[in-house]
Write a structure and sequence with these properties.
Length: about 60
């Protein structure tokens, strides 16, 4: 498992997810910080959405 709390710009979030996902074994995960609905988290959420759109085999869960 990896905890991601990095650059909050959407392109940086997407790049971080691309890099980190290559290290995650099946059953592992990436825990994200600042993925909310408020204005300050919009770019983080958009970066996650772009990553998931380009990597549909990845799963996103809110726990």
């Amino acid at each position: 498992m990896v905890f991601l709390d990095g650059d909050h710009r959407k392109d940086a979030v997407k790049q971080d997810l691309i890099l980190l996902s290559s290290y995650i074994r099946p059953g592992g995960g990436i825990v994200l910080h600042d993925v909310g609905l408020d204005y300050s988290a919009q770019e983080v959420r958009q970066g996650v959405e772009q990553f998931l759109k380009e990597h549909p085999q990845k799963e996103f869960r809110i726990v």
